[in-house]
Amino acid sequence: MKILVASSVHIWNDNRIFHKEIKSLSNKYKVEIHAVASFKYKTVNGVEIVGLKSYRKKIYRLINWFRLFFRILKSDCCVVHFHDFELLFICSILKIITNKVFIYDCHEEFSKVALTREWIPKIMKKSLSVFVEKIEPSLAVMMDYVIVANEPSVKNFNQKAILIRNYPILYEFGNAFNYKTQGRIKRILYVGNVTVERGIWQMLESVNLLSKKRQDFRFDIIGRIDPVKLVDEIKNYIIIKRLEKFTILHEHLDFQEVKQYLISADVGFCLFSPNERRPTLIPTKIFDYMCFGIPAISDKLPQLDQLFNNVNYSLAWDRTTESSCTNLLHRLLDDFALRKRYAENGIKLVINKYNWSTEETKLLQLYADIEELI
């Protein structure tokens, strides 16, 4: 059985799409992925990767919609597994004119995401959110299956949704904390999409204040920066605040490269702007931090309290106090025993509960059921 994975938004080596779902599926099925890439074609571990251009202006993503429409139409695949809300429009048409099986993999609650995105004009946010809330389940009902990444999204699609959480792969875990020895340069890390909504200015301001107290640290920012103009704004801030020595801005890296930074990191950021603090949001980066023994500084969110279930793993900062986050950073970097205790608690949670193996089983069972029907 051949599977075509499609995304007009995500980069081809996205952690959930490629390193988890595709790698799990490719052990049994032939898989090809059509997604954003800097190349036209290559093969990785038997998986065919067909690139889509990345456009600076989001309106040009329409070009990739048409590319994907005709690629899917011409493909001899049995299953189309697509990952973006915007592709529901073309896949609804393709569902009518082909006999392929369509799976919609919904990563987020897009109706709520629309309210927080800076690139969407403020006057349009509410109406766009309402539109998405209405149209998404209406189009998704035409699909054969819907996969969601968190519990609140299940209710959006009724009984049709299959919950496959974005937990870390268990084999990625090693004795990561053993590498985090005392008496060296401390590493602060952020991994994920770099946006205003994901707290980039809160992180940079905390690091700026920290640099006034100590010099023995570095802050690594890893992820795609959106929108593009934010790149220059961040670089200018770093120069103006004289943070060149402390802050390293990386481009989007493959997860295999990111792992080296996770192994050496002492503290991880998991902050949000006030507009992004959705009551249903559980950031997936928190699981990667836990997996590699990295204590986190996070917002005080009820869903994180429920996730940790009274296990001390992260420190929540007080948003009303400007220096709160900086003080927590200073405390964690100074206290090796505290970092070690929090790290061990996070690793135990991953080993015992929050890992990809249970989610992989559900994904493979879904495809086994499809294979029986074809």
Describe the structure.
Helix 1 (15-26) packs across helix 14 and helix 7 (200-211) packs across helix 12. This protein is globular. The protein is an alpha/beta fold. An 8-stranded mixed beta sheet has the order 3-4-2-1-5-6-7-8, sandwiched between helices. The chain contains 14 helices and 14 strands. 42% of the residues lie in helices and 19% in strands. 39% of the residues are buried. Strand 9, helix 7 (200-211) and strand 10 form a beta-alpha-beta unit.
Q: Mind sketching the topology for me?
A:
Blueprint: E1 2-11, H1 15-26, E2 30-36, E3 41-44, E4 47-52, H2 61-74, E5 79-82, H3 88-97, E6 101-106, H4 110-113, H5 122-140, E7 145-148, H6 151-154, E8 161-163, E9 186-191, H7 200-211, E10 217-222, H8 229-240, E11 247-250, H9 255-264, E12 267-270, H10 285-291, E13 296-298, H11 302-308, E14 314-316, H12 324-334, H13 336-352, H14 356-373
Parallel strand pairs: 1-2, 1-5, 2-4, 5-6, 6-7, 7-8, 9-10, 9-12, 10-11, 12-13, 13-14
Antiparallel strand pairs: 3-4
Defining traits:
19% strand; 8-stranded mixed beta sheet; 374 residues; 6-stranded parallel beta sheet; alpha/beta
**How many helices in DSSP terms?**
14
- Side by side, the strands of the main sheet go 3-4-2-1-5-6-7-8
Helix content: 40-55%
Name the shape in a single word: globular
The SSE order reads: EHEEEHEHEHHEHEEHEHEHEHEHEHHH
Low-confidence regions: none
Calculate Rg over CA atoms: 21 Å
Number of strands: 14
Estimated share of beta-strand residues:
15-25%
Structural class: alpha/beta
Kindly report how far apart the N and C termini lie: 9 Å
- Mean of all residue-level pLDDT scores: 88
Largest β sheet strand count, sense and barrel closure: 8 strands, mixed
